[in-house]
Design brief:
It is a single chain. The chain is an all-alpha fold. The protein has helices at residues 12-26, 49-59. It is elongated and about 50 Å long.
Length: 66
Amino acid sequence: IVHHDPADMSEPAAIAAMMQRALHEFGSIDLLVNNAGIQHVAPVDKFPVDKWNAILAINLARQRLR
């Protein structure tokens, strides 16, 4: 079974709700493919700190939240 459930990966509560919906519907999760990521293109000396923090939050930190 393949199931798609979008959630805002910048919101830990949205991630938790998505996981709860999946557990409620399927009983267990045998395999989870997380396909979230963002980017921002700019020269390193003009790269905004808020964009850097958002990239790390989505592409790195949110991969480990449940």
